[in-house]
Amino acid sequence: MAGKRILVVGAGFAGLYAAMHLRRAVDAGHRVTVVNPENFMQYQPFLPEVASGTIDPRAVVVPLRRVLRHCEVVIGEVERVDHEARTAQLRLVGGKERTLGYDHVVLAPGSWSRVLPVPGLAEYGVGFKTVQEAIWLRNRVLKQLDLAAEAEDPERRRAALTFVFVGGGYAGVEALGELEDLARDAAKSYPGMRASEMRWILVEAADKILPELGEDLADYARLRLEERGIEVLLNTRLDAIEDRMVRLSDGQVCAADTVVWTAGVKASPLASGSGFPVDEAGRVRVDAMLRVLGMTDAWAAGDAAAVPDELKGGIMPPTAQHGMRQGKRLGRNLVATLEGRSPEPFEHRNIGGVCSLGRYKGVARIWGVRLRGFPAWVAHRSYHLYAMPTLSRKAKIAADWTVALLFPRDLAQLGSLQHPRDPFRRAAGEG
């Protein structure tokens, strides 16, 4: 019998691990094609340390062609899936369109930033979901210190040194904590600049930050941030950004050059736009075996899937630990189906959560045990180093951490790398 073609859409945690666990299917004569917009998988929990310069950006991305040698890797975006016809419409990285046929499809397109229609947000805000955004934010913070150092107008200086983060989940708290540490260290290199001149604001619409960790740890984290001079505004929303003036729902108005949006994510619209059954949040409905409900030869996992929690009830949260394990189970179940065996339900007891508040500071709840301060920071690093794919990436990150412990923080601002042709254009114009 001719081998089947398996299409894996997306190479985040779920997609990557599903493809890795389909090697047995390839050995049996089946083909696996992985389609992803980038030629790498990024480990998002380490993005805050990329932003602070503690970890080299290349250490937190996993080259797909290196770890998925048994798969065909296509760089592009799946724009629509016609499951009845068993075809997918792709837009390749060069802009060319392609139709790809398949026998089985694995939907793991992940999630997008959940951007609300706040006036001015699209023009002035930046997200924190990709390694590109993390690098940009590092350069941005250091550039703002340079601008403040040369500013003669006090209002201009104040706006340059004001940083607003919207969203008090893991991403927002960790990004703010790491970048505030970076800016505090960097400020020591500027004569006449004090760390107290900087204003860091965390805006959260709910009544507490880090709700996943429980009220006690959330309160501890808030107090530690406030001790560093960070303003934590609860029950507050971003209403508008008008000419870099930030307006909040509590009536505050402040000039801020930098606004970072980390207020949650939403499922990729691919499934809903392709006619797959989705829930009210746009996630693909699947059974406990990770099969799409009401469809044959279709599977889904990760942020874009509504995976039932067999142990606690409800739907599993869109976290790295769940996506990784769902991908492994999905790959095994698909192989079992191809071999005529019965798939097994996905069950996972939540390990807990870990959150860094900056260097040497953190909060964590692991198997019900609460950790604070330095032990939580160590637990955060240990867990994510363990979960990082490939031995080479683990080694690179450990080496970066060792260098960071032994030597002063690197404060080079490389924002010009985002416009590499500008010097050449200037030279050409002068010539």
The rough form would be described as: globular
Q: How many strand elements? A: 24
- Low-confidence runs: none
- Taken as a percent bin, the fraction of beta residues is 15-25%
Largest sheet: 7 strands, mixed
What oligomeric state is this? single chain
Radius of gyration: 23 Å
Give helix % range.
25-40%
Structural class comes to alpha/beta
Give the CA-CA distance, first to last residue: 67 Å
Strand order of the largest sheet: 7-6-5-2-1-8-20
Average pLDDT figure: 92
Helix count, per DSSP? 14
Question: How does this model look, in words?
Answer:
The structure is a single chain. The chain has 431 residues and is an alpha/beta fold. The chain has helices at residues 13-20, 23-27, 47-52, 64-67, 121-124, 131-150, 154-160, 170-187, 215-227, 270-273, 320-338, 374-387, 391-406, 422-430, and strands at 5-9, 31-36, 40-42, 61-63, 72-82, 87-92, 97-101, 104-107, 111-113, 125-127, 162-166, 199-203, 231-233, 238-242, 245-248, 253-255, 258-261, 265-267, 284-285, 298-300, 305-306, 352-358, 361-366, 369-372. It has a 7-stranded mixed β-sheet with strand order 7-6-5-2-1-8-20. Helix 1 packs parallel to helix 11. The mean pLDDT is 92.
List keywords for this structure.
431 residues, alpha/beta, 7-stranded mixed beta sheet, 5-stranded parallel beta sheet, 14 helices, 24 strands, 34% helix, globular
Helices and strands in order:
Layout (H helix, E strand, L loop, with lengths): L4 E5 L3 H8 L2 H5 L3 E6 L3 E3 L4 H6 L8 E3 H4 L4 E11 L4 E6 L4 E5 L2 E4 L3 E3 L7 H4 E3 L3 H20 L3 H7 L1 E5 L3 H18 L11 E5 L11 H13 L3 E3 L4 E5 L2 E4 L4 E3 L2 E4 L3 E3 L2 H4 L10 E2 L12 E3 L4 E2 L13 H19 L13 E7 L2 E6 L2 E4 L1 H14 L3 H16 L15 H9 L1
Parallel strand pairs: 1-2, 1-8, 2-5, 8-20, 10-17, 11-12, 11-17, 12-13, 19-21
Antiparallel strand pairs: 3-4, 5-6, 6-7, 9-18, 14-15, 15-16, 22-23, 23-24
Helix pairs in contact: 1-11, 6-7, 6-8
